[in-house]
What does this fold into?
Amino acid sequence: MMKRLVILIAIISLKNAKVLSFSEINLNSSWRIENSNGTIRLTNISLPSGIYSALEEARVIKSIYDFKNDLSTKWVARENWTYLLNIPCTKQQHDYDHVILSLHGVDTFSLVYLNDELLGETNNMFVRYRYDVTTLLRKECPSEVRLRIEIRSAVAEAAALSARYQQLKVVPECPPEVYHGECHMNLIRKMQASFSWDWGLAAPSMGLWKPVRLEYYNSAKLSDVTFALTEVGDYWHIRLGVYLETGTLSKPVEGTLSFSILGLTGLAEQTITVEEDSAENGELLVENTLKVPKQSVERWWPNGHGLQKLYELRVQWEDEILTSPQKPTEKIIRIGFRSIELVQDKTNDGLTFYFMVNNVPIFMKGSNWITSSILPEKSYDEDYVKYLLTSAKSTHMNMLRVWGGGVYESDLFYQLADELGILIWHDLMFACSMYPANEEFLNNVATEVRQNVKRIQYHPSVALWATNNENEVALRQNWYGTQINQEAYIEEYKQLYVNVIQAEILKIDKWRTVLISSPSNGDLSVAQNNIADNPQDPRYGDVHYYNYEDDGWDPNIYSGGRFISEYGYQSFPAFSSWPTVSLTPEELTDLINHRQHSPLGNDPILLMIEKNLPLPLIDSPDYLRNIIYLSQVSQAMIVKTETEVYRSKRIEQGTMGALYWQLNDVWIAPSWSSIEYGGKYKILHYWMKKIFTENHIVASINRNKWMDLYLIRDALGVDEQWTIRMYLHSWSSFQPVHEVLFDSIMVPENTVVKIDSFNIHSYLSRFNANPADHLVQFELLSQNGTKLSENFLLLDKIKNASQSPRPSIKISIVAMKCSVITNKATYSIKVDVTSPAIFLYMELAPKSDSLKQCHFSNNGFLQFTPSVSVQLECADLGCKSNLHASDINVMAVNQM
It folds into this structure.
């Protein structure tokens, strides 16, 4: 009663001004950091923060990305670090019933103190921790109030935990030695890749990688809103889950929730009364259903199939604590009206596995997303995340798989995916390991899953959940020596992924498919007690396919599958991306080998080059530059070949998805990525724009040595008539040897059409044409003559060519324009050659980091005309940039 009187007096004194029912203060600046013995003290730290970043900015260490500094900085992860902050005392601490200290991301193990009183302990970097500090702040203010977060070494904590698992080892205990990594990552709830991976360095950071806030409210605050759609006749039924928080304890909740969709006046507007008690943890779920006529909204479509129309749904909460006017608190989420279903129907030999969006079966084209930075505090960088996602959209991708060894991504990531039309296949953060199944670990994971699924769930881009990456196949195929105690490991596997993770997801999101693993056999895995006999069976579910023994340039080695969610091949980052100025060739070779974390080393890369391309002289001063370039050509050819096989097998094998491994990188190192760390495109990424184009022609030589032709049409609409122009070219002439026309081919919407096989060897013999000295090029034309796409087919290995003259290549910058608004410079470049150039590649000399985000409109291409024009666009280079033709290095396979 006294509390209500105090608040009433405060309201009267404000002369009926509206009172906020929720407020918050960001505590994201003026932090201090100390190590355990006080020998290192850092000041003026801003959040998000991690200890590696903070030490580098203070020049205590050099960048972990330089040379072999991933080794020289290992001591950082073995220290304990304390974050300190003086909290300001404000009037708000007395104006509200609840003052909650909210830690959105602590990496990872810490004790949290306010002055000298222990608030609690953290042990999961993916969990938001809340502490009620109302009484403490009122008691301590106006004296100094200090927040102290003592963070312990995750490396030491993981090692200590390992001693507790003597009966059934949690394997693998350590990564392969070539990773230069840390052990027992699978025992702790931290970014798994931070202890090292086959494409990444070990950087087990500590810090506050997300905001810290003080939240002020009376009865309750809006936390999360979940959203699901069903189609009922002429209406969309919107099922909403509104999560309210009442501090950290159960409390009576009285108030009103109001719902509206902005721009749809009079539609889907509702107000409901809430009179309930929250749960023991202070959380209350309120559910409600809205109805929207279908004719009043537009559907949301994936990239390439329609618009990404989004609507703002507003939820408002108003406390019923006083009769005087208040300003309601609100949460606005952007929603998309779309249906999505993973279809697994019986076939003659297995099950289908494809996504039906808005009742349309859609072939998924895309890649795999790893964390954008190995340092979690930098993984949410808005500009870089936007850059990477936009780069994915530009290559016609409509799906990315968020891989399970990184982090649950930022709100911005999912917002951008919504806007760009990129569907998200979402792993939970478990990868390539067995994991504990004791009560403490399972409870910790349950909290993690609840919090992150609630936060992410409403986004229309999220297509499905998979509880882990590769753990089913690892268990069944004995990757880590689990066969001896397989039944025990299987039981723990099901406890974690089925009984906890899947169950927690389904409590929140009943409307999406939850796969127990990736790869898996989907419904067959479920039928086989959630552990399939062969999780890589191509007749079911999704497949991860890697082949380092056969010739990756040969399309006949790819057997396909229903959905290939991982495949790819390694290459080296561009020559200019390495510290070539400061290192000798021998030192650079040593650095490349140090950063090659694959247990197979560089041998697979070099083997594919040797099988297909002319080898550069090993004693040449340009050997490293040449072998790096050839590695990117080989990677692009392998992924092109494999992707086009998968796209062409939609009808013959029911293949409905191709997500190559991997889109991005976390440092400059040999890897499977198409975009280097920092943003520079490899040849592969330039090629993906053509490989994934919606209307495409694919040609291959089959096992009978005949040529197969496929026309691919992803677009929707009426039947179209297409024409193929096929040119036989020699490597030595701009003029084609012969032309063949395939005319008036009827192509329906959203399908693949196979043309009759073509006897290519009989055709070549007509012109006495040696396959090694010739190739075939294709143009795909619409009925009105518009070029839809182009492609090429190699008839033999390029290394066998005997008539491929060395071209002279000249680069000229003929024009430049600059936008002051976007700070982008665009150059028009002319490329002149004296004879055909094989996979002509342009690379900017390393002038600055900004050049990493300079892109050519075309690169790594076959040039069969004396002159071509290419655009170069540089983000953030500015209008004062001074790029010259001499700053562009150029290479071709037949020029080396």
Observations:
- The longest strand covers residues 221-232.
- The chain has five domains: 20-214, 219-335, 347-545, 695-800, 809-895.
- The domain at 20-214 is CATH 2.60.120.260 (Jelly Rolls).
- The radius of gyration is 29 Å.
